[in-house]
Structure formats: C-alpha cells, structure tokens
Design a protein that fits this description.
0% strand; mainly alpha
Length: 111
C-alpha cells in the first residue's frame, strides 16, 4: 500500500507538478475522494488488470463493460475491494471510505 504514495512523492521530488497524475498514482490502490477521471481509470486498471489473482471471469465481465459503464463498474470494484477487507477483518482506510461515500452519492444522483 505504500508504493503509490512513495512513487508520487518521488515524482514530485523529480519535478512532476501535475496534481491529477500525482493523486492518481498515490491512491491507485486505495481510492480517494479527490480522484478525477484519470485516477478512477488507474484505480480500475490496477484492479482489473488481466492476470491478477481474482475471479478472472468476473473481472473480464467488468472490463467488457468499460468505458461505457464506468460509474457502475467503479462502484462494483470498490464494493468488492471493501467486501474483501471486511471478510478478512482488515481495517479500511479513511480515504477508501471517503472514496466510497463520494461514489455512493454520485450513484444515487444518477438514479
């Protein structure tokens, strides 16, 4: 979980100033309420990358729905990640909770 923030910090030291890119990299594994489209897509790519140890049929079905249904797919992925943490009795980062809350509000607004 430290590789994203560490990479973003290094890029910042190297002169990268694009906050969208830095935020996307820093939070691509955990989510963050401030993720924009770039950040959301990197988050999805990290989770849905072919070859990951997950239900490959489920992940493939989600990938097939992109980019047309990005919002619903993103909510499904975050739900899956949070569900996994709960199943394993692992803590959920505050940034992940805030990310979910933003997505849930946006999903309700779409209904």
């Amino acid at each position: 979980m430290l590789h994203g923030p560490a990479c973003a910090a290094r890029l910042r030291r190297e002169g990268v100033r694009d906050e969208s890119v830095l935020t996307a990299i820093a939070y691509h594994s955990t989510g963050h309420a401030d993720l924009d489209l770039l950040g959301e897509l990197l988050y999805l790519a990290d989770y849905l990358e072919p070859g990951r140890k997950r239900d490959s049929d489920w992940a493939a079905a989600l990938r097939d729905r992109l980019p047309k249904h990005r919002g619903p797919v993103l909510r499904e992925v975050v739900t899956g990640r949070i569900g996994h943490l709960l199943d394993q009795s692992l803590p959920i980062l505050q940034t992940t909770i805030e990310f979910w809350n933003r997505l849930a509000r946006e999903g309700r607004a779409e209904e």
